[in-house]
Amino acid sequence: MKLGLIAGNGRFPFLLLDAARAQGLAVVVAAIREETNPEIDRRAAEDDRITVYWLSLGELSRLIETFRKEGVSRAIMAGQVKHKQIFSSIRPDWRLAKLLLNLRTRNTDMLLGAVAKVLGDEGIELISSTAFLEPLLAAEGVLTPRAPDEDEQKNIDYGLNVARAVAGFDIGQTVVVAAQACVAVEAMEGTDAAIERAGLLMKSLEDDASTLERRLTIVKIAKPNQDMRFDVPVIGEATI
Prior knowledge:
By secondary structure, the protein is of the alpha/beta class.
């Protein structure tokens, strides 16, 4: 059986590729020209069971044609595709343009859900992006050498409430907190940029007299009713 992989940016697509190959699956990679790391070509050159096609983000029809030609009936989305790309200079084909025109809102859930439906209508089932990566999911509890201290735990508790509210509107999944005050909320720019923005803001206040604790606490959550087929919240080395 062939597995389709719609590869975004970061290391997530490579982890999934390795896991699928470890299970003996041939993988057809739809590499997104605006997002995917070119290293994916080297992986294909080293393994004849990996086939890579480079597509633009706007080429939904070509994606479907590629998977159908290769006999792909199950596919996975892995890796981030920046939400801001829908406002970039990409040129949507007729199928994607029609999809965008019919959306009530252009948030992540609506957009990717509509793409998943189009793929499903063409006989290509999108499955959970964690299907092959269960061992890499974060377990419950403390994962670091020490637990949060009292102030950090207060920030976490406050941040969770804010993040759940923001994520409920499908705006973002990350908030940055200091002294139980919200410093930054993630939106279209992504997690890393939100963290950097918070750090720059607090750095700009260094010379101001203040009794408030300046340490930042970052809270990232899954959305309510998170669709695990896409947009799974992850933290990678670059974010850390």
